[in-house]
Amino acid sequence: MTDDADLTGTPRAAGAARAPAPGGPAVTDPRFAPLPQRPGKVLAVHLAYSSRADQRGRSPAHPSYFLKPSSSLAAGGGTVERPAGTELLAFEGEVALVIGTAARRVPVERAWEHVAWVTAANDLGVYDLRANDRGSNVRSKGRDGFTPIGPRLLDARSLDPDGLRVRTWVGGELRQEDTTAGMIFPLAQLVADLSQHLTLEPGDVVLTGTPAGSSVIVPGDVVEVEVDAPNAPGAPSTGRLVTTVTQGTHAFDGTLGSLPAVDDVQRAEAWGSRAAAGLPPEPPADDAAGVVPGAAPDTAPDTAPDTATGAAPAVARPALAPELRERLTRTPVAAISAQLRRRGIDDVHVDGVRPVLPGTRLVGTARTLRLVPHRADLFASHGGGYNAQKRAFDSLGEGEVLVIEARGEAGSATLGDVLALRARVRGAAGVVTDGGVRDHAAVAAVGLPVWCRGPHPAVLGRRHVPWDTDVTVACGGATVQPGDVVVADEDGVVVVPRAMVEEVVDAALAQEDEDAWVADQVAAGHPVDGLFPMDATWRARYDAWRAGR
Fold it and tell me: How far apart are CA 265 and CA 282, in angstroms?
């Protein structure tokens, strides 16, 4: 229904006052004009779109929420102040739901029936004010005018909840575009989940999260948000919700509470990446960050994110030639292990790991990520923003394997489904970690070859701090250097020094031919004595067989 109908669906004359929801007051405050009444609650979802989760490098297992005061609403947009003394005001275009009938413990299959209207919203926030109440967002997102909404309402009864589109423009440039089909948590699930904790009442508003593309806006910027249903009859639209940013002049009183504060982590998160924020790539760790004095320095990669895609470019390393990769793919890990042992290289097995998806194989060149044991102060400085873990996954190149040093600590995950998907999209060959994997079934479904110690539901920060990339690491008892060749199958994972790979694979394939011939002789009834390993007589027979092939 558009804004030419009241909550019950009864048409009204253009320009007439909206009929209130049953028992609600008439709407006279212009801040709430698009709505049937002043909402008792405005609830918002922290992270709900796959594109946003991919951008942030984390995918929640369940939705989480925060409250915004109804006093933050601004009907139809207008102007919004960036508070004096702040720099990081960010926009978030969203689909807003308006509850039509009370919902308490409703099943997901009936939840959409309790939504009367759909409209557009802009969940504005100031990153400078997140530090002291991060998560609750009271100060950063609760200010007057920080929830523009409207300008028109669409009848939810006529809409497919998976067929809505949200778009956001800044200065006429499209910055966000996604559909509700790309949500991690469907709209009906959000309503049903909220209803099992509290009663959703008529007029309440649910802000359903923002897709990728949210970034910083400055005084003078004009932000427009539109929600439509492009595949529905008539392609109904809310129209554009237009908000102009102005500069506030009222300074904060530091004697009353904490003042705005920003750092590079907040800047990178607000803008979407370090590059978009105008920041240099995060520097490699120095002596104070854990480099052993006297150790040979490792070369840090260029991990500045691409300003268009948010991806860091892959570190330039020689790729495996297609013919060599094909030969390695045909070579069992056991055969490679045997050849390395003959050459005195025996400590190259990543022990204690198994494939997430049985039956997969892995061949690629190593990129590395080092995780150090969790320490609260170090996680605060290195765990947030565009950290080493995110940079590593964002910079993976075609045919590369990310090897993660987790010290054999399986008490938390080192990656989940979003990062696995990121690696697959980047064309990576796979991941080997001597830590845990969360979203284990979902990671298997991604189809990326991953070897790990096992599943674990906890996030990285429970036991680890993401520290540095493209350095020599220890994974499952094996030393791995960037550029080493990693090969894995059901027998395990082996690391081949790059300089030896051609020699080793040729010898291993030759040995495989010999072993196959020996197996044929055993199957024909010959005893293994003198045959395995071959004595001079059997060797002569084998050489004659090879010559006659």
Answer: 10
Tokens of 135: 């998560």
Domain edges within the chain = 32-249, 322-501, 513-547
Give the gyration radius of the chain's Cα atoms.
29
How far, rounded to the nearest angstrom, does the alpha carbon of residue 207 sit from its chain's CA centroid? 21
pLDDT value of residue 276: 80
What is d(CA 389, CA 521) in angstroms, rounded to the nearest whole number? 51
For the beta carbon of residue 38, count every other beta carbon within 10 angstroms: 17
SS3 letters for 159-174? CCCCCCEEEEEECCEE
State the pTM of this model: 0.52
* 416 assigned to a ligand binding site: yes
Close Cβ partners of 52 (under 8 Å, ≥ 6 residues apart): 209, 210, 211, 212, 214
- Give the CATH fold of the 322-501 domain: Glucose Oxidase; domain 1 (3.50.30)
Residue 57 and residue 389: Cα distance in Å, rounded?
9
Instruction: Find out whether 418 is annotated in a ligand binding site.
Output: yes
Determine whether the annotation assigns residue 328 to a binding site. Answer: no
CB within 8 Å of 423: residues ≥ 6 apart:
393, 396, 402, 430, 431, 448
Q: Is residue 468 marked as binding?
A: no
What does the alpha-carbon distance between residue 155 and residue 6 come to, in Å, rounded to a whole number?
A: 10
Q: Residue 419, annotated ligand binder? A: yes
Contacts for 177 with CB less than 8 Å, ≥ 6 apart: 165, 166, 167, 168, 211, 213
For 117-128, write each residue's pLDDT tens digit.
999 999 999 998
Consult the annotation and say whether 439 binds a ligand.
yes
Q: Phi, psi (5° rounding) for residue 33?
A: -55, -35
Any residues with CB less than 8 A from the CB of 147 and at least 6 apart, and which? 42, 68, 72, 73, 74, 121, 122, 123, 124, 141, 207
Summarize pLDDT for 61-94 with one digit per residue, the tens. 899 999 999 999 998 889 999 998 889 999 999 9
- The CATH superfamily of 32-249 is Fumarylacetoacetase-like, C-terminal domain (3.90.850.10)
Q: Which residues contact 5 (CB under 8 A, 6 or more apart)?
A: 11, 12, 155
